Structure formats: C-alpha cells, structure tokens
UniProtKB/TrEMBL annotation:
The lineage of its organism: Bacteria, Bacillati, Bacillota, Bacilli, Bacillales. It comes from the Bacteria. This is Futalosine hydrolase. One of its GO terms (biological process) is nucleoside metabolic process. Keywords: Hydrolase, Menaquinone biosynthesis. Residues 22-208 form the Nucleoside phosphorylase domain. It comes from Paenibacillus algorifonticola. It catalyses: futalosine + H2O = dehypoxanthine futalosine + hypoxanthine. Pathway: Quinol/quinone metabolism; menaquinone biosynthesis. GO terms for molecular function: adenosylhomocysteine nucleosidase activity; methylthioadenosine nucleosidase activity. GO terms for cellular component: cytosol. Catalyzes the hydrolysis of futalosine (FL) to dehypoxanthine futalosine (DHFL) and hypoxanthine, a step in the biosynthesis of menaquinone (MK, vitamin K2).
C-alpha cells in the first residue's frame, strides 16, 4: 500500500461500526473494530488491536448523550479532551478527581487534528462542536446528575462510555487519539422513547467523507 497513515477506529457496537464503514467507503487506511460497551472492555480491545497492527492514530467513534444547549440530537462533537468524569472519590465537599487525589490524570488531550476536523465538519455543512467529551461507566439518568456534571465540566458537550478506555490504551502506545461522537439523546432523566439512534448513526456516516479529506 502507498505511504499514508494507518488509522484504528474503535466503535462500541456493530451498528456504529457499519455506519462508520459506510461513511468511509471502506477506505483501506481505516481499520474499524468493535470496542464493546464501557471503558474497561474498550481499553482491553483497543490494546489488543494495537498489539496486532501498526497505527498512527486511534479514533473512538459512536453515539453519545449531549448536554442540552451544548450539543443537539443529530449533531457531532469532536473531543478536544477526553475526560474520565467518574474516576475519583466522592467526598462530603463534592467530587475529587484522580488529579486531586494524586493518582494520575482524569483527562487525556485529543490529537491536535481535533480542531481542524471540527472546522472541516462544519464547513461540510454538519453541525459539529469542539469540546470535552466525558466518559462514564453509568449512563446519566437523572436531572440532578446531569446538573452536577454540567457544573463540574462547564465546557463538556457530551458523555459516552468508552472514550477514556480507548484513549488510555492509545496513550500507553504513544499514539495520538481522537473521539468523535454523534448525539442520540439529551443527557438527563432517562427516557428511552426520546433516543434518536437512527439520526445519530446517519450523522456518524455523514462525517466519513470529512475524515477522509482531513486525516488521509
Ligand atoms: O436503557 C438505558 O437507560 C441504557 C443504559 C445503558 C446503556 C444504554 C445504551 O443504549 C448503550 C449506551 C451506548 O451508547 C453510548 N451512549 C449513548 N448515549 C449515552 C448517554 O447519554 N450516556 C452515556 N453513554 C451514551 C455509550 O457510549 C454506549 O456505547 C442504555
């Protein structure tokens, strides 16, 4: 194959993988693999994929919840930072992150390509924000938790369950990482009837041509 980047894309489940592959027109530079759901499974599967191939960039792609007023259903969010929002300790004075506890960092900075990608997605006519994306092991299901997260992370636009796992694996191999999410639901009180998974999968697919243009 010609010189060019080899890019590993981790998607939680098959429906997301199929949408991403359609958007990328099965371009051979992109290797799309299932990460499973949740940060632990995603970290393990990303590590396995990275031991089996040689990659220049890792991307976590899938659907996500959007903070109301920051990322609408059907829009895209490109992470400038990938944040483990529930990694730390609860205290009577509030949440203490890993950083505060002195055990490491809860934030992994995204590749410098994140900004150019968000700009190019917007130029392609897609609604796209550049903002931190939170990783949580538990999907937020109450207004109180949504409010608390929104206050702890005033710039965050989305939450999902795999980004920090994928990013931790990529970081341990010294490979830059991106997270790109399409919003399927608003973060807040659980309401499965309001999830718009089809709309989010369409947005993931629509991002493909811009990824080809900017990253290859
Ligand atoms: O029925 C539920 O309440 C429920 C509980 C846990 C998981 C789900 C899923 O449908 C899978 C979550 C899957 O999609 C991503 N995702 C999408 N929206 C959100 C969200 O608001 N918060 C966190 N994750 C979300 C996530 O990355 C998983 O891969 C349903």
């Amino acid at each position: 194959m010609d010189a060019g980047p080899n890019i590993l894309i981790m998607t939680p489940v098959t429906a997301e993988m199929d949408a991403v592959c359609r958007g990328l027109q099965n371009n051979p530079r992109f290797h799309v693999t299932e990460a499973g759901v949740g940060p632990a499974e995603a970290a393990v599967r990303t590590t396995l994929a990275l031991t089996r191939g040689s990659f220049d960039l890792v991307i976590c792609m899938g659907i996500a919840g959007g903070f109301p007023g920051r990322a609408a259903v059907g829009s895209l969010v490109v992470a400038d930072a990938i944040v483990a929002a529930d990694l730390g300790a609860e205290t009577p004075d509030g949440f203490s992150s890993l950083d505060t506890l002195g055990f490491g960092s809860s934030t992994i900075e995204a590749s410098g390509q994140a900004s150019a990608l968000a700009t190019a997605l917007a130029q392609a006519g897609l609604a796209a924000a550049l903002a931190p994306i939170l990783t949580l092991s538990t999907v937020t299901g109450t207004a109180a938790t949504a409010q608390a997260l929104s206050e702890r992370f005033p710039r965050a636009a989305a939450e999902a369950m795999e980004g920090f796992g994928v990013a931790t694996a990529a970081q341990s191999f010294g490979i830059p990482v991106l997270e790109i999410r399409a919003i399927s639901n608003a973060i807040g009180p659980r309401d499965r009837s309001a999830w718009r998974i089809g709309e989010a999968l369409q947005a993931l697919e629509a991002a493909g041509p811009t990824l080809l243009e900017v990253l290859v």
